[in-house]
Amino acid sequence: MLLFAIALAAVAVSFAWVAIRRLRDDERRTHIDELDDYAYQFDLDTPQRLEYFSLVNARKEGKEAPSTNTLMVALLNRAAAVLPYVERVERDRPRLHKLHRHSYVPTSVLDELVASEHELQGEVEDVRAEAERLRAGWGREIFAQAYHIARKRHAEAMHAAGQAQRGAGSWSQSGTHLTLGLPLPPSIRRENVIVNFEQQACVIIVGGHGPRRIELERPVKPDECHWSVRDDGTLQIVLEKEASGMWKGPHKAQ
Q1: What is the side-by-side strand order in the sheet with 234-240?
Q2: Residue from 235, 237, 238, 146 nearest 188 by CA
Q3: Number of structural domains in the chain
Q4: What is the rounded average pLDDT of the residues 116-136?
Q5: Within 13 Å, how many C-alpha atoms sit on residue 151's CB side?
Q6: Residue 61 is part of which domain span?
Q7: DSSP conformation letters of 144-166
Q8: Whole-prediction pTM
């Protein structure tokens, strides 16, 4: 009887240990899933940073010297461009430290985060110094302003992507083509737009947000479809119909 009780206790302990391991594994997966990935080698040479330096160099050389206001706008854009990196570091840092304490990620990953954080801090301080040079006291305010600009652009991009998905805008057709015209917010440039074509769908990413799918009424020829951003800020999408004929509308009936 005693041996049976000991065996039963051993089984209970074994099950309890398995349960604890599963809880730990679930916790590990939860924290890992919350991280985008383990790559923290940020490219701080953003197009906005390069544009700002080109304006500064032009001013030094006296070639079509930009105004102070032009430099301030360019610097604000430079600050807004690194905000996603700042937000990611602040979000991932405590989670990554916790994972490292439990040996769920190697030390090299944590070292990469720390090194990138130092580089990012250097860029932030450089932007603040440039802001202070352009206008006294602006160094303390520039990133707060950049944050508001980034949030506004995010809202505009989401709105534009939503319009695309809902089919807001204009459309026209011929027997072989269907053309969509979708309005974009003023802050969105061509390099901020991606359009991919499928046999009966159009996938749109605006300002890094999305993807948004437009389910088409009928099949198209993806390889022969194309898109462009017009001078008036309209996203124009030209769809090559798979079969000639007139559609009732661009979207698949719900």
Answers
A1: 170-173, 177-183, 234-240, 226-229
A2: 235
A3: 2
A4: 92
A5: 7
A6: 35-140
A7: HHHHHHHHHHHHHHHHHHHHHHH
A8: 0.54
